[in-house]
Amino acid sequence: MIVSVLLLSYLYSYLLFSDLQSDMMNPVELCERVNAMVEPQYMSSAVFLALLILRGQLLLAAVAIPVFASHFNISSMNLHRLDTTTILSTVSREKQMCALRLALLLVIFFYTIFELLKTVVGVQSHGHAWSILA
């Protein structure tokens, strides 16, 4: 659930940055919308990483650590809020960072779906269906 919320929020942010680059949105509106999502994204990322570690999902936690580390680094330097005066010069970097976070979360999402399907099919057919994948 947390992964899907994070995925949707990063996808929305990515689309907003694309709209700004194509002059379909003004910088003030973009900053207001993205800044409203920054703290919930950071908190969700921290909770998600903590849940992965507590559940023993260390492989997924290793993939989620770069997202959390970038959030922690940006917020510790107090750069987590976008500024309307500088956003036009930093929009491509912000868009790339958003795309990177989105890609890492997509890896986690699809791996989770794969493991879920593997468990469901494995339970129903007593492990025979996944013998070629294991």
UniProtKB/TrEMBL annotation:
One of its GO terms (biological process) is vesicle-mediated transport. The chain crosses the membrane at residues 42-69, 98-117. InterPro entries: Cornichon. It comes from the Eukaryota. Keywords: Membrane, Transmembrane, Transmembrane helix. SMART domains: Cornichon (SM01398). This is Uncharacterized protein. The lineage of its organism: Eukaryota, Rhodophyta, Stylonematophyceae, Stylonematales, Stylonemataceae.
